[in-house]
Design brief:
This protein is α/β, with parallel strands linked by helices. It contains ten helices and 16 strands.
Length: 421
């Protein structure tokens, strides 16, 4: 009689290969790292897995957690970012630890009460697995969650596998580079607003540039067939970060997201305009939460009434939107014929400030009065942009002020790219 424990690993690998082939085809379709099952299933074999995931963590129409469970992978913990593992929490809403009904696995929120897995959370974890769709914008908090997850892996001596996904805004690099004194969860490292890197590339940069505790030096000779293994050494110990690369992706790709990355980025138009219009979150204007076109619609009741009119109302992801129930006047990019940007557009931010009657109240105030505590400055990564807007500096002049730091960042970025630029 053939023992089940001998044929099961072969069965799992064959099943994984069949799933992979179902999506492979002969075209140049971009496929995220999660689809490359035959590359990372051997890394998870007989391991207790801690999975960081959300609704974007899918293979086709099936969630990664469900796929892995069916393939016999032992997931012992699930970690969730902002908006939660199932993605139905408001922006900024705190999510408690709970048991996921579909999988029966404990879900620990890494947004709110804590941002990083504790040693206790990882005590029964052998390997950590990360699969989140990012949108490539510094103040979109998933890269901050990635940083804390990576830091926990290092501190608890756990290997980390990142299932890379394309960056839908990965075809350009732009915006002010964050200054250290403005560090927060919406911006933790000296990178521009749009940094043009995938999660796998970004994690490699965090390690290689020494932006995490300790100084890890990359081992250039560590390449095996099971994905892209990036070895890092520190004195007498080492840390392996494995990046399972995307297929057919380059930084010139315009990747269309199959799943909305969060409730308030419901379509590609919101994803493309988000780097430019999220700055309104640091002002008294509505940024479109509570409408069907968040980050494409923005305005305020005090703006001229001949502008586009809209009224924010509670909806999914915006249970109590800014200016709830108030008739606002502003702009609607959703119905415009403006091409999607390949750089940050400040046009509407500057116009809104010029048209706003109570300019002293345009930016949301910080209780402390400290420049670093203004939310607008946290988004910008400096206090300069606010001052430039108040001074009436032109968009061209503002953009010129970004260039020295952008040039320096691009040199750093180039060392960690896994895909053609």
């Amino acid at each position: 009689m053939i023992k089940l424990n001998k044929i099961l690993p072969v069965f799992l690998l064959c099943t994984a290969m069949l799933v992979q082939c179902a999506y492979a085809g002969h075209d140049k379709t971009i496929r995220p790292g999660a689809y490359q099952l035959q590359q990372y299933l051997p890394l998870l074999k007989n391991k207790r897995v801690g999975l960081f995931a959300n609704p974007t963590s899918v293979i086709g129409q099936t969630h990664l957690a469900d796929t892995l469970q069916k393939l016999g992978v032992h997931i012992v913990k699930i970690f969730g970012p902002e908006h939660g593992f199932r993605g139905n929490a408001d922006a900024g809403e705190k999510v408690a630890t709970y048991t996921d009904e579909q999988t029966g696995i404990t879900v620990i929120s890494l947004y709110g009460a804590k941002n990083k897995p504790s040693p206790a959370d990882l005590s029964d974890v052998d390997i950590m697995l990360f699969d989140i769709q990012d949108v490539g914008v510094r103040f979109y908090t998933y890269i901050s969650s990635l940083e804390y997850f990576l830091e926990a892996a290092i501190q608890n001596d756990k290997p980390l596998v990142i299932l890379d996904r394309p960056n839908p805004n990965g075809f350009y690099v732009d915006g002010p580079v964050l200054q250290p004194e403005f560090k927060s969860f919406v911006g933790m490292q000296p990178v521009p607003v749009v940094y043009g890197m995938t999660m796998g590339e970004y994690a490699s940069m965090l390690l290689g540039e020494g932006w995490l505790p300790g100084k890890y030096m990359r081992r250039q000779d560590k390449r095996i067939h099971l994905g892209q293994v990036l070895g890092f050494e520190k004195k007498n110990n080492s840390f392996n970060l494995t990046v399972i690369k995307c297929q057919n992706y380059t930084h010139k790709s315009r990747y269309i997201l199959p799943v909305k990355p969060s409730p308030n980025l419901p379509d590609m138009s919101s994803v493309y305009w988000y780097p430019s219009t999220c700055f309104f979150e640091g002002t008294v204007l509505s940024e479109g939460r509570g409408t069907s076109h968040p980050f494409q619609v923005f305005g305020h009741p005090s703006l001229p009434q001949d502008l586009f009119a809209f009224t924010p109302q509670p909806n999914e992801g915006a249970k109590n939107p800014k200016l709830n129930g108030q008739l606002c006047y502003g702009w609607n990019l959703a119905d415009s014929k403006i091409p999607y940007p390949d750089k940050i557009a400040l046009k509407w931010l500057l116009q809104a400030y010029q048209l706003f009657p109570g300019k002293d109240n345009f930016f949301l105030a910080a209780k402390t009065g400290r420049p670093a505590d203004y939310f607008f400055n946290k988004l910008a990564g400096n206090a300069q942009l606010m001052q430039q807007i108040k001074a009436g500096i032109t968009e061209q002049e503002i953009r010129a002020s970004w260039q020295p730091a952008l040039t320096a960042f691009k040199k750093i970025r180039s060392k960690y790219l896994l895909y053609a630029d």
